[in-house]
Amino acid sequence: MNIIMLGGPGAGKGTASTELSKDLKIVHISTGDIFREAIKNETELGKKIQDYMNRGVLVPDEIVNDVVKERLQAPDCANGVILDGFPRTKQQAEVLDRIFEESGKKLDAAIELSIPDEDIIKRLSGRRICSNKECGAIYNVVTRPPKVENVCDVCGSALYIRKDDNAETVKVRLEEYHRTSKDLLEYYRKDNRLKTVYPKIDSSVESLMNEIKKILEI
Ligand SMILES: [Zn+2]
After folding, report:
1. What is the pLDDT along the chain (218 residues), one digit of tens a residue?
2. What are phi and psi of 3, to 5 degrees?
3. Domain residue spans in the chain?
4. If you measure from the C-alpha of residue 147 to the centroid of ligand 1, how many angstroms do you get, rounded to a whole number?
5. How do strand 127-130 and strand 159-160 relate by DSSP bridges?
6. C-beta of residue 99 within 8 angstroms of C-beta of residue 87
7. pTM
């Protein structure tokens, strides 16, 4: 089964994709993870991506398309994939359909996590991340606070706010999402591949997973 996970920044695509990939025993491909790895390793690709991220704008299609195409050709994708972070535009969606078609596969469903902007802003500006790179635990002052303020439960390191998560950057990212996703959602809606769920800001992972499985009829 090949699935994509859609939704604005902070909608919980990463968590939902990880859980679903465990359930369905298929690979979870996050373009964000691929990008972060490239940035960490200071590759040529990584430097370009860092520049776009700093400005709060999307990485251009031609870069992302190549990264995704190469990843989808790996043998571990044979049984199916969950893509998270791609496609973000209708043009990328068309590219993705072509990539699948070329390998005799198809995209079965596009799951949209739909959450009001004000909830997203609340959720993201509350996010705190462990400064210990080996740990990287994620907290939220609203929905998942650490036991001691600003201290990681797991390893005791200090927590910090990721640059991407400050309110101004979040607003830019939300605007960008709404602007680019309109045609994208319509693209999947018109042939009934779009499946929308409406998670609450404090929905448990379990209840979200139940909704997603219901909507996928699995
Ligand atoms: Zn930690």
Report:
1. 999 999 998 898 988 999 999 999 999 999 888 888 889 989 888 899 899 988 888 788 888 888 888 889 889 999 999 999 899 889 999 999 999 999 899 999 999 999 999 999 888 888 899 999 999 999 989 888 999 999 999 999 999 998 878 888 889 989 989 998 999 999 999 999 999 999 987 788 899 999 999 999 88
2. -135, 145
3. 3-116+167-216
4. 12
5. antiparallel
6. no
7. 0.79
Q: Omega before 116 cis (within 30°)?
A: no
Q: Which superfamily does CATH assign the domain made up of 3-116+167-216 to?
A: P-loop containing nucleotide triphosphate hydrolases (3.40.50.300)
Q: 136: CA distance to ligand 1 center in Å?
A: 6
* C-alpha 212 – ligand 1 centre gap (Å): 30
Q: Which residues are catalytic?
A: 13, 88, 127, 162, 173
